[in-house]
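In the design runs reported in the main text, the only information available to the sequence generator was the tokenized backbone. The following block is the verbatim input for one such run; it is reproduced so that readers can re-run the procedure and compare outputs position by position.
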């Protein structure tokens, strides 16, 4: 039986901030296109919980080896069995909720979740570490549009922008952990690029995603869109500044979430 402290530890092990962010973005986009937002939100949340928990379950030994104080398994607040069970239960819920959206949307969402699991299980340690982020984020908008009647894929511009956001977020997320990851044998694309090129790459990709959405608005960029692009640029620049001067801070990843929020806001408001 998991008590109140165990529940809080499970929330932390689920990587709550990115899980909530991705779920909120998917729900907002679903609402904007007229898809069943509550069901898309529930399915995506289940998938994100499974991804977060599987990450901490798979990385338990590595996290203990480098003394990660932000990981509940590494600190002893949770055991591996509890997190593994939670991940598998979340996957089962994700399957049921995904297919409640329809066959096409269900398959599409399960592909995005399987792609993210492939990162946790294998690809994070290879030069292809970026690929699951590109695939999962890029296909996520189509989960909503395939739940429409009739089903259809998301616009190409939206798909490409989402993929760019995903890869940019990946690069920003890894920055504080480059040394710890390398010490435990995790050498993905950011580790091969180095801190400077990873930082610049994250900024460039995040800005490219926002610019693509703003400039691709039907009828041309609006004043609100330009303001959003300026805000995204400020967030990206601040992330680069912090990454260069305080490498251990998680601010660059939070700034990446902020840029993604700005981009999704533009998508929602422009339909």
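Verbatim output:
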């Amino acid at each position: 039986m998991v008590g109140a402290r165990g529940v809080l530890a499970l929330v932390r092990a689920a990587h709550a901030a990115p899980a909530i962010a991705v779920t909120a973005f998917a729900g907002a986009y679903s609402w904007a296109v007229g898809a069943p937002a509550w069901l898309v939100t529930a399915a995506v949340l289940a998938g994100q919980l499974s991804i977060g928990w599987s990450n901490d379950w798979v990385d338990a030994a590595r996290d203990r080896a480098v003394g990660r104080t932000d990981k509940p398994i590494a600190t002893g607040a949770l055991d591996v069995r509890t997190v593994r069970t939670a991940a598998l239960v979340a996957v089962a819920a994700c399957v049921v909720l995904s297919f409640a959206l329809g066959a096409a949307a269900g398959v599409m969402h399960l592909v995005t979740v399987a792609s993210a699991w492939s990162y946790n299980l294998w690809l994070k340690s290879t030069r292809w570490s970026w690929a699951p982020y590109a695939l999962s984020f890029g296909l996520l908008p189509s989960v909503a549009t395939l739940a429409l009647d009739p089903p259809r894929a998301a616009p190409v511009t939206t798909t490409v922008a989402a993929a760019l956001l995903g890869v940019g977020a990946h690069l920003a997320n890894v920055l504080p952990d480059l040394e710890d990851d390398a010490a435990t044998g995790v050498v993905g694309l950011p580790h091969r690029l180095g801190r400077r090129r990873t930082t610049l790459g994250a900024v460039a990709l995040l800005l490219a995603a926002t610019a693509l959405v703003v400039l691709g608005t039907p009828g041309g960029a609006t004043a609100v869109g330009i303001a959003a692009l300026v805000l995204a640029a400020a967030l990206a620049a601040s992330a680069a500044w912090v990454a260069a001067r305080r490498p251990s801070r998680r601010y660059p990843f939070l700034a990446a979430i902020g840029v993604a929020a700005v981009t999704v806001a533009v998508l929602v408001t422009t339909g």
